[in-house]
Amino acid sequence: MNKYSLIFPGQGSQSIGMMNDFNNHPLIKSTFDEASKILNVDFWKMVTEPNEDIHQTMHTQPILLASGIATWRLWQSKIDQLPSYLAGHSLGEYSALVASEAIEFKDALKLVKYRAEVMQKAVPEGVGAMAAILGMSDHEVISACKDAQENEVVEAVNFNSPGQVVIAGNVLAVERAIDIAKSRGAKRAVLLPVSVPSHCSLMQNASDALREYLSHTAIKKPKIPVIHNVDVIEHHDADTIKDALAKQLCHPVRWVETINKIVFNKISYIAECGPGKVLTGLTKRITTDLQTTALVNENAIDEFKILIQ
Fold this sequence. Notes:
46% helix, four-stranded antiparallel β-sheet, five-stranded parallel β-sheet, alpha/beta, 9 strands
């Protein structure tokens, strides 16, 4: 059987009906029921019926954790071989750590709910912003941010794929960076519909609060290596994992390097374990050396199983 890796999506991959193609599979439904019971919120209703609650950060983060772990459990029910590596984009890193058995699902649910709360509190609504810059090199985006700061914060925070970098910071500084990027040849530079400027230094207070919360969270050595966003390294003890998770909130997501590390380690197959195909699209833009699948329904899971055998 061929070696493979799984990657877990983060915020932005949620949508109403995102688990419908699993046709109420018992493992999918029971995982959502478990999450709903632990946090006392009906997450299944939230992903199946029209509502705006799904996009509220405090709901989105547990929902995406539940969806990633539900898909992981269904995958695990069909195959004996563990992935060689796991990784997750921002919030998705928590799904990866649960799949690796470093963190219990119930603990991770409470952890991501708290993470969402401190992120929302760290920067009042209307103060922070994020924007996607397309068609510029990493260096050019970093330079545009530096020239736009004017004693405010604007930083490159998500290195998603070559030519796609997300920036975050104070609203006016982000808007200045957009104007500078456009003037220097960006194909597109557009504000994102978010209220929290994730992964920039404005999140330092949230990072400190999360670090304190993590000090009371049980974490074990992962059974599967998890490549962390903040340093593109697999950590094997509780203290370094907690440090990486705390730093992640106010440091960039190094996604291009993460995917390239998987390629460097002679992995040929990768699957996105969770709703949507965002990471699948990014992976295809990063490298042609990986066969990429999105596990968006049971048929996709079965096809990926055949592919790696």
